[in-house]
## 1
Amino acid sequence: MAVRYDDASLAAHPPSLAPDYASTRRRAPSQPLIIIPHTLSELTGPVYGHETVRPGDDDLTRQHAGEPLGERIIVTGRVLDEDGRPVPHTLVEVWQANAAGRYIHVRDQHPAPLDPNFSGAGRVVTDAEGRYRFTTVKPGAYPWRNHPNAWRPAHIHFSLFGPSFLTRLVTQMYFPGDPLFAYDPIFNSIPDPRARDRLVSRFDMDTTAPEWALGYVFDIVLRGRDATPTEEPHDD
Amino acid sequence: MTDPRPDGLTPSQTVGPFFAYVLTPAAYDTPVLFEADIATPDAPGERIRIEGYVLDGDGEPIVDAMLEIWGADGEGRYPGAAAEEPGRNAAFRGFGRTEVDSNGFFAFTTVKPGPVPGPDGAMQAPHVSLGVFARGLLKRLSTRIYFEGEPGNEADPILSLVPSDRRRTLVAPRTTRGADAVYTFTLRLQGEDETVFFAV
Ligand SMILES: [Fe+2]
């Protein structure tokens, strides 16, 4: 039979068109997406693991001669699938602005200082239990031109593969209690507030390293690995 | 070991405009993990170039998109799926990533995939899966590149799900440039001749 995962969970994602986020208006497809069965082309995927990272890729505070300015933080969490299984040995790419809210990207024109000791690019691989961890500095909020006086809440960009081409995910991690949440059309493009909250990391005293760095926990849930055509529907 | 069932998926967010220095960092100090040329010498199949533009609803080039491809080798084997046949296409990773340039132009070099199994025992025509990320895209757009002149296109089980007047947006015309086979695939994210995108 044709295999297709239960896709009710995809409702957690934002729609393609979120008019308050102006860039979606001319980029979102106007035609409905066509639903296709999951074939080998969707159920297989690139496998990138430990061979892709170098020592130090997981510490964004030690990639230059000196230490970056800013509040040093540790970010850790688990990558799971929808059924609660860990996603082991999968590559996680992260990038972020520096503590002043400035990216090293050539097109970032925000008049905040670059930090010669901070690039903001990191790579980690999950362990056998799906755990990842990296050290960085807390990124600053930054302005953008979406609407008058628009500011992005502080965030770290995440890119993950998971076990197949359909589990690929690019997202952003936020910090608890950010006063900019209410004004951010990217964050608010997610229709379900509970789903939105899953992008907000949790301050964690156990992760916090004494005399060194605050700890934040951010768990990530990718699509389930197993075809479930014969399984009973989940009643949640 | 399985944890309690999580509350739900982690929602997608846009890749934004500033991904290049980690995801496609050729112009930066970050080591490059993923390339646009993935045609390794050991991969069976015809060497092809897939190129085109990414355009928005006004027909304007999108200059800050990232594209990813996933395809089988010329014998229809996906990397990983071929692990039981050691020594065969071991270096071919099947996965490529590139950013568009300042004209919205992209190009991949790979091998033309062979047919791969589809649903209900049907074979799928040769195709490459394509993911599109960009500022303004809150989630990945998924589509497929098919190849002009392939006999399997007519009966392909996925193409058959696409209204016939829109199928041509997925079938890349073939030209030759010198000795190279070039397939042109233009992505129109919105509007007239809008590229077909799939819910996967
Ligand atoms: Fe950002």
## 2
Amino acid sequence: MPQYLLKLRRYDPRSGEAAYWDEHRVDLGGRSSVLDAILKVRDEVDGSVGIRCSCQQAICGSCGVRMNGRPGLACNTHLEEAAARDFGVGWNPSEEGDEVPAGVIEVEPMGNMPVIRDLIVDMDAVHWKKIQRVSPYLINQQPVPEREYIVPHENMVDITQSMACIQCGACVSDCLSMEIDPGFIGPAALAKAYRFVGDPRDAEHHERLEDLSEDEHGIYDCTHCFNCIDACPKGVDPMSQIMRLRRRAGTDEKIVDRNNGHRHEDTIATLVRDYGLLHEAEMLPRSYGGNSWFGKFHPAAGQVLLRSLPSIVPAVLRRKVNIKIAVFGHKIPKPDLDAVKKLYAKIEGREQRVELNLYVSGFEDEPEAPPAETHGTGAPQDDGPATSPHELEAASESESS
Amino acid sequence: MPSHDVLIIGAGLAGQRAALAAAQTGATVAIISKVHPVRSHSVAAAGGINAALNPEDTWESHAFDTIKGSDYLGDQDAIEIMCREAPNEILWLEHAGVTFHRSETGNLGTRAFGGASAARTYYVADITGHAILHVLYEQLMKHSATVDRFEEWFTTDLLQDDEGRCNGAICRNLRNGELQVFDAKAVILACGGAGQAYKPTTNGLIVTGDGIAQAYRIGARLMDMEMIQYHPTTLAGNGLLITEGARGEGAQLFNAEGERFMEKYAPNKLELASRDVVSRAEQTEINEGRGFPDGTVALDITKVPRRRTLESLREIVNIGRDFAGVDITREPIHIHPGQHYIMGGVKTDIYGQTTIPGLYAAGEVACVSVHGGNRLGANSLLDTLIFGRRSGEHAAGQALHMPMPSTPSTRVTSTEKEIRAIINRPQGGRRLAAIKDELGETLNQYVAVFRDADGLRTAHEIVRRLKEQARSATIDDHGTVFNQDVIGAFELGYMLDCAEAIVVAAIERKESRGAQFRTDFPQRNDDEWLKHVDISVNGEDVPTVSYSPVTITRWEPQERSY
Ligand SMILES: Cc1cc2nc3c(=O)[nH]c(=O)nc-3n(C[C@H](O)[C@H](O)[C@H](O)COP(=O)(O)OP(=O)(O)OC[C@H]3O[C@@H](n4cnc5c(N)ncnc54)[C@H](O)[C@@H]3O)c2cc1C
Ligand code: SF4
Ligand code: SF4
Ligand code: FES
């Protein structure tokens, strides 16, 4: 039986002492979970180790912690997997003759939430407050039918992804935006919001989207850092849900928010289409002045440029931008640019947006023996969903689940 | 001091449904849970919920399947109510926002489940319990103004007035250790089952029989406690559940010789016979040497189309991968019968009233009895919702005409003393976990799929000894903030009480019916045992046995084959 060194972050508010590391050696197979190890310590050595847990099967959402620097559920993280994370956790033999452990695992409480005790954080103070913020209940389409609402199968399967959220808080723990702006509604609550916006039975899609767009801590406050996607143990992919909320708000409902979030996003898309790469100097003026070359002449653009001088000047001084790039933008080889444009034409040319998710993967049942000419996952047709750029997203989703 | 018309202890499906129903009538309501409500073990329910909602289906057919499934021990008046009210309950859930699976037409779609003569199980992928629980919690958040939530509060005692009427509870705020008296005109227990008394079990660590034991201690009658469901498909090793939905979708069972053995035991329903039948078949195969060396048989889910599995059995794909290292879409997985559900519980009538005035019970903690000797898959979620709602409505109705009781706040001192005594115990006793493990292994050995008088007696002796040892078990945590050690000591006491009631009832029933198979009495014996075994205590810690009749409305007992 390999031996793992478990370092638990302990803290008791009543003791008056600071948090400290509590080390234990546990003999368990590498496929045992981090929770198994913690419970072994609690059961056999020290009953005062504080951690919430119940189901031991990644469904109740109790056991969110950080393990070697990454948030997740203690009950579905294998010891060998956590130990393999390159986290630079040191191991110092404390006594002579100490056996070299098979791995070292540091377990800490989740971030972005106050610690109550040991590995237990105050989810009410942050996570649940944010959930409350998004009116987290169905506002029924009227009239309520006598029997069930008739709803397309696809819609129900689609929102089942955000419904699969177990409210564990792992995504909240490491959300970059929330670290900078504690007011950010955040990944879990926004994923919850999509569960209603994507539900045809809800009567207030537009109001919800408007609310989440206009709030400066809303959908445009996410920085696309992907941390929530990496963290989520259930494949909810909160960031993808946020991007869907944006597409619904900006594209479908044409909501132009006062935070310029939608215009900013539009600008980026246009610039990448036209130049193949982001044209940084055009970004701010267009986001504020209007999404065209003339945007920079709008007074609002001037104002924002002026306000941004403190960050523009150092960038110029450090040669991050030069005049040539500022005026003409980046250049990429013509075939590459054509390829980018073709992608845009294909996606924008679709009659309907194709949205894939955890349950709607676009994967077909594999044929008995894949015919030689089929690539990848056996896409049915060239322009079928499985070949869309979303495929990558879908694949990464099923991996992270 | 909090005081409410209706106090609900437990925030799983039964408790939350009761709270919403009681609040609907205008009553003031408090709901208490030792964990955040969405952590309640209802969240683990995977497969679905039954209702005869299709126009071609009938509630009578649902009722008959349930009665036959119960091996005729279910009370037919209660079963009729449950099956009649099921369709409306599903529609209520649908309107509240549950994202039920749809058919191609956009109507609600169903899947097949064990022991049922029609596909009448409504579901959300394989996260049905989760989806319903979270939607009910959405509704609680919506109704925050009318339902007071006390999340992460632990109930230690039920209170009674001089006439014996239950009028509140004492609860501990886990965050700071503070004790409070909760006054209430009526109390609804919705504390779930007692699966942790077994090892392994499909139940979460919080499912420790608190409600059953608390009611028992103040004199309420328990019923059908010997009826412990072993689910046919739990993972070797950790006991995790592979939902019956898998067999509903077409998965098959094989022994080590590659034989589809259910053909012998249930030629018509095969893998979809009722659970006691399938579990017994598996255990027989294993006992007679046709299982795998790890004491299992194989569940082959590769029979289900891969796409279908990924869409609607996703959770068990993950469970297979994370907890057994098996890709269930490509290879069979090893399973065996494992403890899953307790059909028995606090005896109630069709309004959820227990034998203690003012005290109600609903959900797995209760025994109405709609499950009798064996619960059909997907009938438990239904039970929690129907009888949760009925209890909530009835309790609120009763409360309307009553003055608010008031227990002096000094009543907490005795509980305070008890807790202090636990914390200050001298070291040197056995560890809580060691006692709990021994209990779990004992029940799993002697009070499992097959039982006999000798084994049961041995189990009883062990339980009595463990009760003694539990009184001096070592406590490491002396703090007040989230002292889970002290809670563990309480929970161990509750599990031991439940265990004793289970063993005593199993000794008492000298026949084989439903989940109780006595190798020393292998036949069902309607002449002597078509009755419920009730267990209660009166002051002393000595269980006494009594009986109550089975209610039969129109379905006379028949021989049972699948
Ligand atoms: C893995 C699994 C799968 C299942 N699948 C299905 C299925 O597909 N279909 C089906 O019909 N049934 C299924 N069941 C059975 C069903 O899920 C349960 O019987 C049902 O959910 C029980 O609900 P409940 O509301 O009675 O209790 P629970 O959901 O267990 O809730 C109990 C509540 O009581 C609270 N509580 C307990 N003690 C205390 C205390 N001392 N103080 C304060 N609060 C307390 C807890 O915090 C919790 O909120 C399944 C069960 C399991 C284990
Ligand atoms: S992608 Fe957005 S929501 Fe997700 S963690 Fe990063 S900033 Fe937060
Ligand atoms: S989105 Fe994922 S990580 Fe975030 S709370 Fe839900 S399940 Fe947890
Ligand atoms: S213990 Fe339930 S999610 Fe980990």
